[in-house]
Structures are given as structure tokens and as C-alpha cells.
Amino acid sequence: MANAVINSINIVGISTCVPKNVDKIADYKLIPENERDGFIKMVGVNQRRVADKGVVTSDLCYNAAINLMNKLGWDPLSVNALIFVTQSPDYLIPSTAIILQHRLGLSENCIAFDINLGCSGYVIGLQVASSLMNSSGISRAILLSGDVSTINLSYYDKSTYPLFGDAGSATALEYDENAQNMFFCTGSDGKNFDALYIKTGGTRHLATAESFEYKEFPGGIRRNDTQMILDGLRVFNFSITQVPAQINELLMLSSYSIESIDMFYLHQANRIMLETIRKKLKIPAEKCPYSLDLFGNTSSASIPLTICQSVANNDSLNPENAVVCGFGIGLSWASAKISLKNTMVLPITEYNECAK
Amino acid sequence: MKLDINDFISKIESEFEDIIPGSVKPETKFREHFEWTSVNALVLFSMINVEYGITLTAEDLQKSVTVKDLFDIITEKSSNG
To answer: Does A140 score more than 50 pLDDT?
Structure first.
């Protein structure tokens, strides 16, 4: 695995924004009524937030970033790097981060680009942003991450539709010689790229009229080629094997133990998967908060969303020693040991129209 | 360590609330004995991974009919590992 120790970067603020619209799994008719309670209990998703038509990831992240800069008292012109981790950009080209540089009022003296990652993207985004700051002498950066995944789901595919929710996040990073070291372990497995993917719409398979025709799959599932495909068992087996091994490696690298870490913020995939990982690592339940029940799997926003929910609920008060871990689409995985001791963690906000 | 099928059965019975304790036998067809959904399959895979350190595949599941079939695969994978 690709391991790294990065010094002198503080995580000074985290903010998350979700759409107002709540969709309850209890109302989802494609899961038979007698199976719905079991699904909610075991998969762990009670409800999720769904963006209204026309609201996209950059809108949610814009809201989160404006809120964060206001609360931190940051002059937008003092930010010299903007990284947007998303798989739901505004346009195929150019990078949405560049559009957001202007929208957020950042200086033109600003490096801005997108990273096409999902579940692992928040942690890899942290690694890229903090390395870039150190190597390029950048004192302030904003990392945005999130997805409006619901756009790419088929209502008739119960293997994906009830799992994913929409959210956007913003994380403020600042150069500080006294900051604690951050430790990263990162890995990629391209042979399983098709365990979770959208086949058509890129350049390998250009979209045609036929791409939008719905096809039948086992289990009564119907979807078209522009919608997300999830091989649940393959992703499940990958996660319960790879994640515990990687967190153990991260703890070795950073000289911490399960006991000496205050909080573990894991990517919110599904409850059975998370509980399997937690039990294998023997992490106490109170050190491993979930946001899955209220928001579903929110892709690269799930870790900041869980941090914001947990701190706002007073479940965890700015843990000095925290582990963040993302894993899934790619397949790709990344873990980091970070400190949130000096981090302003804002309560989750709902998207409002005035941000447009 | 020798694996015990009765121990495996008691682990299955404690994992699923709708199973009456003592009702599962080695020859029990698990898809018929309790509500078999893709979610319950993950619960079973999770239990086997946590308790035995074994990762079952979709093919393993396809070729298994009874509880003993699953147990035999776990035994085989344990001895190879």
C-alpha cells in the first residue's frame, strides 16, 4: 500500500450540506413490505436525502464552503487551492472546481481541479491537498467532496436505489508548523473496477438512444446502461477483508492502537459491512458513529457528514486522535490518522435556494 | 483447530432471530428453513468471516444447499489457509 506521513497541515474546519428532501425507505415499494423492516435494520438506512431536480453536488458543496469560510472568518482571497472530489461534476469538461473558484470568490491565483473518486475520495483528497500545500507553499486550501448519486440510480433496482443519499462537504486546511503529523495508507484495485460502476456515458461506451432502454436483470431488477451497477457481494467481501487489514497497517505506521484512537469515522456503506469491520477490529461501538440511518451512503461526503453529525450530537468532542477510512468504488481505499482537536466542526446544514 | 458443526449451527441460530433454537440440523436446507434474502446472505457471510476468518464467494453459496455444505466449504478453506 502507498503509505505517507504528512506534517504541518491542520484541519481547521469541516462543514456539510444536505438537500431538504427526505426519502423514507419504509415507503420504497420495490422491497416487499414484509422485508422492509429487516432491510432497514440490517442495511441500516432508514432514510436518505435526495436533491431536487436541478440541484447538483457543486451547489451543496458551495453552501458548505461559504458557511465554513464565514464561520472561520476566512477571506476567500486567502485560499490558493481548491480541490473538488466528486463523481457527479457539473459538466464533462471542464473541472467543476474551476467554476467553483469563481463562484466562491476565490483568487485567480488558485490551483483548482477535480478528483474523480467516490467512497475513498475524502481521505485521498486530504492526502493530495495536504501534500500539495507542503510542496507548493500554499497556506490555505479548501477540499470539497460529495455526490448527488441519486441521479444515476434506477428506481427499479433495489440493490442500489435505497442505499445512496446526496450530500456535499467542505474542509478547510491551513499550513501550521505546529500541526500534528497526518498518516495515510492508500490502495487501488483496478481489476474489480466493474464491481461498482456506470457503464455508459464516458468515452469507452458512448451513450446512444439504446443506452436509455431499460433491461431486465435477475431479482426483478430493471435499469439502463447509464445507471449505477453494484455487485454487492464483491464489494462486501472486498471491504470486510481490505479495510481491517489497512486500518491495522495504519495503526502500525502511526504507532497508535485501537485503544489509543478516540474515534473511528468509517465510510458509511451499509450496516452489516460496518459492523463486520468493527467487530473484526474490536472497536467499541461508541467509538464508531454512524450517519447511515439518516443519510444513507453519501459517497465521498460520508466521512465529513458523520464527523459533523457526531460532534453536533456531542457523541465526540473534537477527538485528538481520529481515524478516517474510505473504501469502495474503484475499487479504491484509503485510511488516515488525523487530529480534529483544533477543528471547527459545524452542524449539518440544509441546502437553501439563496445559494444559487 | 478442529471445527465443530454443532458450534457452527449454534452460531447461525444466534445470528438470525426468526430461527427457533435447536431447529437447525446439518442436513437443513438453509434457503428453505429461514427467510432467505440477499440481506440475510450478507449476515451469514459476515458471521462466517468474523468467526472463522473465511471469505465465501457467490460461487460457494450457489453450490451449497444444506448447512453441512456451507460447513464443508469453511472446513476446506480453513485447512487450505
So the answer is: yes
Q: Which residue has the higher pLDDT, B18 or A215?
A: A215
Compute the distance between CA of residue A30 and CA of residue A161 in angstroms, rounded to an integer.
9
Cα→Cα distances A8→A28, A137, A181, B71, Å: 48, 11, 7, 52
* Range with the largest mean pLDDT of A9-18, B9-18, B41-50, B67-76: A9-18
Q: What percent of chain A has pLDDT over 90?
A: 91
Q: Which of A237, A241, A272 is the closest to B43 by Cβ?
A: A272
Q: Which of A7-11, A255-259, A352-356, B73-77 is least confident?
A: A352-356
Show the cell assigned to A319. 477527538
A236: chain B residues, CB-CB within 8 Å:
42, 45
Least confident of A98-107, A207-216, A260-269, B60-69: B60-69
B60: nearest CA in chain A?
Answer: A233
- Closest-CA distance of chain B to residue A237, Å: 7
Hey, which residues does A197 pair with through a beta bridge? A229
Angle (nearest 5°) at CA B76 between B70 and B78:
100
pTM (predicted TM-score) = 0.93
Report the amino acid identity of residue A297.
N
Contacts of A276 in chain B (CB under 8 A): 46, 49-50
Q: Is the Cβ–Cβ distance between A1 and A23 less than 8 Å?
A: no
Q: Do B39 and A39 touch (CB under 8 A)?
A: yes
pLDDT (tens digit per residue) in A186-196: 999 999 999 99
DSSP code per residue over A264-332: EEE----HHHHHHHHHHHT--GGGS---HHHH-B-GGGHHHHHHHHHHHTTSS---SSEEEEEEETTTE
Give tens-digit pLDDT for A199-237.
999 999 999 999 999 999 988 899 999 999 999 889 999
Nearest Cα of chain A lies from the Cα of B26 at a distance, in angstroms, of 25
The set of cell numbers assigned to B55 is: 471469505
Q: What chain A residue is nearest to B47 in terms of C-alpha separation?
A: A276
Report the DSSP pairing between strands A349-350 and A9-18. Answer: parallel
B46 interfaces chain A, CB cutoff of 8 Å: yes
Mutate to test the interface with B, among A30, A237, A281, A283 (most CBs of B within 10 A): A237
pLDDT category, A86, cuts 50, 70, 90?
A: very high
The residue in chain A having the minimum alpha-carbon distance to the alpha carbon of residue B35 is A35
Closest in A43, A279, A280 to B39, CB measured:
A43
CB atoms under 10 Å from CB of B6, counted, come to 10
Check: CB of residue A49 under 8 Å from CB of residue A23. yes
